[in-house]
Automatic annotation (TrEMBL):
It is a multi-pass membrane protein. CDD domains: TmCorA-like (cd12822). The chain crosses the membrane at residues 267-285, 297-317. It is found in: Cell membrane. Keywords: Cell membrane, Membrane, Transmembrane, Transmembrane helix, Transport. Its main location: membrane. Belongs to the CorA metal ion transporter (MIT) (TC 1.A.35) family. This is Magnesium transporter CorA family protein. Signal peptide: none annotated. It comes from Amycolatopsis rhizosphaerae. One of its GO terms (molecular function) is cobalt ion transmembrane transporter activity. GO terms for cellular component: plasma membrane.
Length: 323
């Protein structure tokens, strides 16, 4: 179902009225209208597109999924695409919820691709800052962007906590390396996804703040600057976390390599010790006479040589930390 709101001179006047009545309010210079639609078709948007003179390319982008975050300007309106995100702590997978918006002089039309986008939170933000309602469409767009950017910030903060937990496991004694590798891969993929939706938001918010766009007035400018600051912080945080995940992965591989080298040193050292009695007993096992052949003292001499040489090798390897 479509959701609607009517603000007149900055005051909420009506909610959930029929979308067909929007045209009755657009002629009032003091009116600001919001229309929300979930998973509409091009036919569903046809009426409102004709009413607001929406560009055909913008309508197509609003219907089709997987658009990049952007802000396109047309003669009669602007078209905005953004993504709210949420991290699943159990799997480390980042979920996305796409939203498109048409920005006209006195109307905001939001198009959600599915129910995952929490439009109720956007409405609560509008209600909590009702004193800004006189700023018209800019006020509505700010609430929408504030929800989107806050989701980015919450996601990067959750990813930071997950990566810190992963970092603690690197030097743990008993750890499931397969699970750790799988989780680090999921976190890295989530960071790549987050970067794709966060990085373009700098241009989107910066473009909206331009004076020639006539969306942000002097009252709203500090609020948009705050959103822009959050976008920058989320972007920088995402970049640093990507480097940190890579470092953790490299550290894990280096530690595994070091453990393997330690094991190989120990195995080689024991093999060298075992080679001593093997060589001596092999020498005495020849079918020709040798010093001490067929004599009791020959057995004791060979046994003493085995014990002395093996003990000497053990001491040498121990001092070099090979055992």
């Amino acid at each position: 179902m479509a959701r609607t709101r009517l603000y007149r001179n900055g005051v909420l006047e009506a909610e959930n009225f029929p979308a067909a009545d929007i045209s009755d309010h657009l002629g009032d210079p003091g009116a600001t209208v919001w229309l929300d639609m979930c998973a509409p078709t091009e036919e569903d948007l046809a009426t409102i597109a004709e009413e607001l003179s929406l560009h055909r390319l913008a309508v197509e982008d609003a219907v089709h999924e997987h658009q990049r975050p952007k802000l396109d300007r047309y003669d009669t309106h602007a078209f905005l695409t953004a993504y709210a995100v949420r991290l699943d702590p159990a799997t480390g997978v980042l979920g996305k919820a796409e939203v498109a918006a048409f920005l006209t002089e006195r109307a905001l039309v939001t198009v959600r691709k599915d129910e995952d986008f929490d439009i109720d939170d956007v409405v609560r933000r509008w209600d909590s800052a009702a004193e800004l309602g006189k700023s018209g469409v800019g006020f509505l767009v700010h609430g929408l962007l504030d929800h989107v950017v806050d989701s980015h910030f919450d996601a990067v903060q959750a990813l930071d906590e997950e990566i810190e937990a992963l970092e603690d496991l690197v030097f743990a004694e008993d750890v499931d390396h397969k699970d750790m590798q799988r989780r680090s891969l999921h976190l890295r993929k989530s960071l790549v996804t987050l970067r794709r939706v966060v990085l373009p938001m700098r241009e989107v918010v910066n473009a909206l703040m331009r004076r020639d766009f006539h969306i942000v007035d002097d009252v709203l400018m500090p609020y948009y600057q705050d959103v822009y600051d959050h976008v920058l912080r989320a972007t920088e945080w995402t970049e640093s976390l990507r480097d940190l995940v890579t470092t953790i992965r490299e550290t894990q591989l280096n530690l595994q390599g070091n453990r393997l080298n330690t094991i190989m040193k120990k195995v080689t050292s024991w093999a060298a010790i075992i080679a001593v009695p093997t060589a001596i007993t092999g020498f005495y096992g020849q079918n020709i006479p040798y010093p001490g052949f067929d004599q009791t003292w020959g057995f004791w001499v060979s046994t003493a040589v085995i014990v002395i040489l093996s003990a000497a090798l053990y001491v040498v390897f121990r001092r070099r930390d090979w055992l």
